[in-house]
Amino acid sequence: AVLCTIQATATTAIANSQIELLTMSFPGRAVQRTWHLVDAASQTVGRLATTIAPILKGKHKPTYRPNGDCGDYVVIVNADKVHFSGKKWSDKLYRWHTGYPGGLKERPAKDMLERKPEFVLRKAILGMIYRNNLRMSYIEPRLKIYAGPDHPHEAQLPEGIKSLPAHPRKRMGDFHFGLGSKYSETPVQVGGAKARECEDA
């Protein structure tokens, strides 16, 4: 029994050492951050938010850690021209409370876009990120949303920079969702290159 205990302890120590070797940690000065430009004109709010939230968290990087601040900067322009599908402009309500008795307020999405065009997209994006100190102190300040086509970040995003591709309405075609051209070449992908070759054959 003593020998089994020693063997189990040794196995656990080896496993823990392997886990420590696999865990990556970088100081703040070693984290490389990129600035991304997004044109929100005529893009659906929810689909656009699912593209931006992982970039803010850094999930597109091999050095991603859930407890680390490793995301990039995202600058969104034309936030006042976003799109909602169906009847969401009239049916979707934004609610908040003033803190006083009977202070429950609500506003339709159409009115909210007229009063605070940046709020609609910001609410959708931040709603996909955990509410913790990492989001409030580090992730939120990296999200820059502007109603018009202009932004004050010409130093980081000079003129001529192309915006990120629009999120497609269907998961098909040559859009690779950040995985490169290999994504559209898989035979399982509907509408991919190999799938089109099989259909032509």
Report on the architecture of this protein:
The protein contains 8 helices and 5 strands. By secondary structure, the chain is α/β, with parallel strands linked by helices. The termini are far apart. Helix 2 packs across helix 5. Helix 2 links the parallel strand 1 and strand 2 (73-77). It is 37% helix and 11% strand. The chain has helices spanning 2-22, 45-57, 88-91, 109-115, 117-126, 133-139, 182-185, 193-200; strands spanning 35-39, 73-77, 93-97, 104-108, 143-145. 16% of the residues are buried. The model is unreliable at 179-196 (pLDDT under 50).
* Low-confidence runs: 179-196
Q: In order across it, which strands form the biggest sheet?
A: 1-2-5
Q: Compute the gyration radius: what is it?
A: 23 Å
Total count of strands: 5
Count of separate DSSP helical elements: 8
* Termini Cα gap: 66 Å
Mean pLDDT: 79
Shape: globular
Structural class: alpha/beta
Give the tags.
alpha/beta, two-stranded antiparallel ribbon, 201 residues, globular, 3-stranded parallel β-sheet
